[in-house]
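Thread amino acids onto this structure.
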């Protein structure tokens, strides 16, 4: 049987309409952090941003019939997130020009580019944190994650012990998880942090 991570968005939407919890969890894992990132870009306040994204996904679970199966789920979620931000701004009478201009920008962005933009922005954030690792740790981490080398292969190439490589990878993971905690808290694996060697 296919893993849920292998299903298309349309297949997952059909399953969510049948009240499939695992399909819903997969949609959440794919899109929650992207929605949080975009909402937080507009509000610049993490707590209400988290609340609005949680509300968005609760609404998705409560009323999946509102989604058309051929609809772009990323676009659907983005419009829902944007609408919640605009209502939040109105409700709280926020007059900040910066927030207003971001909200205007958000309402004008093309839905077709949302997913690509968000994924690109998140990759930039992740790469920035990887670039900030100590040089040797960064090299070992990238050999492990980008080149898909095992600890033993990395150790052989760099003339290190397996234990040293393992320790460096684990330390890199701790640093990255800490730095990316805001995004990881939504359950989306931005990079393959849990990859086994």
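Threaded sequence (197 positions):
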């Amino acid at each position: 049987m296919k893993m849920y991570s292998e299903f298309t968005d349309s297949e997952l939407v059909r399953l969510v309409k049948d009240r499939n919890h695992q399909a819903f969890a997969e949609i959440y894992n794919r899109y929650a952090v992207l929605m949080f990132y975009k909402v937080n870009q507009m509000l610049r306040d993490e707590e209400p941003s988290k609340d609005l994204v949680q509300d968005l996904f609760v609404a998705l679970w409560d009323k999946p019939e509102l989604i058309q199966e051929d609809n772009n789920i990323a676009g659907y979620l983005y419009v829902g997130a944007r609408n919640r931000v605009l209502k939040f701004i109105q409700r709280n009478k926020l007059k900040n020009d910066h927030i207003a201009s971001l909200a205007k920008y958000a309402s004008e962005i093309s839905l077709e580019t949302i997913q690509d933009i968000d994924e690109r922005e998140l990759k930039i954030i992740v790469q920035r944190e990887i670039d900030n690792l100590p040089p040797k740790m960064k090299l070992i981490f990238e050999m492990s994650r980008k080149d898909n080398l095992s600890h033993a292969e990395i150790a052989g190439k760099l003339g290190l012990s397996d234990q040293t490589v393992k320790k460096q990878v684990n330390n890199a993971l701790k640093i990255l998880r800490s730095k990316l905690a805001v995004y990881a808290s939504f359950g989306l694996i931005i990079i393959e942090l849990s990859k086994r060697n």
